[in-house]
Write a structure and sequence with these properties.
320 residues, alpha+beta
Length: 320
């Protein structure tokens, strides 16, 4: 079962999170805390230095680790500040004022650990909290009457996969972990109060949901109008481009914990066709995908194969 990570951290106070794209590996079984360094960064709202942050590493039973910048509280408990992941996500596409950022900094959140394939939200649920991804990956999917899944989108650390749940009463799709994952949730009541106080913040959150819709429109076109190699290349381009914007790409490689079955269920193709299509893309020398590692050898060629134009992602700055 999923559980809050307060006890696992050993400090009893994971009220929020401070996420920068620093995770070295993803772990969902943190059992030990290590203090491995300090950093000091400017306050997002004022520009003044924030208190020194302690880099806290959660170590799983299998030895995997994930690191967060955390702030020690006066009572000795670790406070994982919840504002930065939301601020960074909204700043990808919207301008936030100092007052907006100060409002976000008032958010309180709870961490939740998810096992591989565990549902965070089920189709038909009426959630009262919205989540951002801290570690690992999650996916949105439709559950069909025969038990099959149609994966709709994949989400990495730094993503806000269910912002639309703030405005909708009932979920028309499910969200599950693909591999171990950690998410942080903020109450809808808290978010709606913030939107009422700061309409510009509300516009930014609304824009986040509109970009979601734009991604879905592109997925419809991708799955219905492109050849299978172009379809797969386009998905790889989108995930790689988004990951690069969030700082998850290293040496033209991205850890992508999507199985070949899940890839086929997302693209609407059989597993045998997935394998044939991967062979074709490898032959192009543009990209390779093996054992959960996506390697881009020739970005320009991959974009040409996938007919990829990132304008539908509406990012203010092009990732390097």
């Amino acid at each position: 079962m999923s559980r809050l990570l307060d006890a696992a951290v050993g400090k009893g106070g994971c009220d929020g999170l401070d996420m920068r794209p620093r995770a070295t590996e993803q772990s969902a079984e943190p059992v030990e805390e290590r203090d491995v360094g300090h950093s000091c960064s400017p306050d997002a709202a004022t520009g003044n230095p924030r208190p020194h942050l302690l880099t806290t590493t959660l170590v799983g039973n299998a030895g995997s680790v994930v690191s967060f910048d955390t702030q020690p509280r006066p009572d000795g408990r670790i406070f994982i500040d919840a504002d930065r992941i939301v601020t960074n996500k909204l700043r990808e596409h919207s301008k936030l004022s100092g007052e907006d950022i100060a409002e976000i900094r008032n958010f309180s959140s709870a961490l939740r650990e998810l096992a591989d394939q565990e549902d965070l939200i089920r189709q038909g649920d009426e959630p009262d909290r919205s989540v951002v991804v801290i570690s690992g990956w999650v996916a949105r999917y439709h559950l069909l009457s025969g038990g099959q899944r149609q994966y709709l989108s994949f989400h990495m650390p730094g993503d806000w996969p269910d912002a639309q749940s703030i405005f909708l009463d009932c979920m028309d799709h499910a969200v599950c972990a693909i591999g171990p994952a950690v998410v942080a949730s903020v109450a809808h009541k808290e978010l709606t109060r913030a939107i009422s106080r700061r309409p510009t913040l509300g516009f930014a959150i609304w824009r986040e949901t509109l970009i979601d819709a734009s991604i879905f429109r592109e997925a419809i076109t991708n799955n219905s109008a492109r050849s299978k190699p172009a379809r797969m290349a386009h998905m790889f381009c989108e995930l790689f481009y988004r990951a690069r914007a969030l700082g998850h790409v290293r040496h033209d490689q991205l850890r992508l914990p999507v199985s070949l079955v899940q890839l086929g269920e997302a693209l609407g193709i059989a597993i045998a066709t997935v394998n044939r299509t991967l062979v074709e893309l490898r032959a192009s020398r543009a990209v390779d995908f093996r054992s959960g590692l996506l390697t881009v050898h020739d970005w320009t060629r991959l974009c040409a194969i996938g007919e990829f134009d990132p304008s539908y992602l509406h990012l203010k700055k092009q990732p390097r």
